[in-house]
Design goal:
Phage tail protein beta-alpha-beta fold; single chain; 3 domains; alpha+beta; seven-stranded mixed beta sheet; Jelly Rolls; seven-stranded antiparallel beta sheet
Amino acid sequence: MNNVQKFSSKQDIHQQACEWISRFDRGLSQTEEQGFSDWVNISNTHRQCLFDVAQTWDELSVLHELSALFPLRDNHLEKTNRLSIRKTMAIAASFIFISCLVWLSTPNMSSIGESPLLVLDAETSIGEQRVVSLSDGSVIHLNTDSLISVDFSDTRRDIHLLRGEAHFEVAHDEQRPFIVKAAGNTVTAVGTAFNVQINNAQQFELLVTDGKVLVANKLPPINNSDDSALTHPLDGLGELMIAGQKALVGQQTLQHLTLSDEQVKNDLAWQQGMLVFHGEPLAEALLEIGRYTSINFSLADDKVKNRRVAGYFKAGDIQGLLFALENNFNIVYSKQDEKTIVLSSGI
C-alpha cells in the first residue's frame, strides 16, 4: 500500500472536493466510497472545505446533512449508511459543485442573455497530464503543456483549446451542443469523443474516436434563402466526420483520411504515457518527444536527422530513449550542458 501523501495547496483541496462531489452525481462504487472516506479524513481542512463552500450558499440544511458524514473511518459501515452518504452528497452536490468550480475559475462571465453555469481554466505543465471532469458528465484528458478554457451556459457548452492537445469524451445533450474552438476553427459534437492537437495558430489535427463531429467551414458561405435551415448550431455549412477519421484542419482547408483501429490506438497512446513511431525521421520524432521534456536535442548532421526510428517510447523517459537510440539505431549522445543533448551517428 502506498502511504506517500502529496502536499496540497488550498486550491488543490478545493479542486479535489469538487471532483469528489461530481462523482456523487453518478453514484459512488464501494471502492470510491472508501476513497472518499480516506480523503475527507486526511485533515480538518478537507472537511472544512465542504462546509465553507456550503456556507457561501447559506444552506443550513446542507451543512446539517454534511455533518452526518463525519467521521468516516469505520470500514464496517452498514449498507443503509452507504446509501445515506450517497443521498446526502447528491443533495449537497447541487449546491456545492457549481460554487467550487466558480471559486477555481477566472472571473470571465460575459455571456449576454445567457445564464453562466460553469467557467474555469485548466492547464498542464511540460510532461504533465490531467483529467478534468465537467459538471455535465463530459471528461477532458489534457496532454502535456496544454491549456483549456471552459464556459458553460444553459444553451451552450463552449471549450477553447488555447494550447497543446486534449481528448474530449462528450456527454450527450442535444439542447446544448459541445463546441471546441482551436486555431481559428470550431468542432461541434453531441455525445461523441474526439482528439484535438494544435500544430500552430492556424492549424490543428482532429481525430474522431467515437460518434460524429462537425468541423466548421470557414470558406465563404453559400446563399441560402431558407433561414430556418440554420436554426440549430449543428446545421449549415461544415464538414461531417465520423469515428476513425483524422483530419488536418486549417482556417480554409480540411483534409482527412480514415485510420485503422490500430492507428487510432497508436495516436491515443499518449493517454497511457506512451509514444509510438513507425519509421519517422528522427528529427520529426524528436519534435513529438520534445513536448514531454524540457531537454533540448541537437542533431549533429543530416544523416542523424534522417535516420528513421520505430517503436514504443515512454513519454518523458529521456534515459530510456537514449538507451534505445544507442542500442537499436547506433546513435550516440553527449551532453552539451544540463539542458542540451547532442545526437550523432555511432561508429
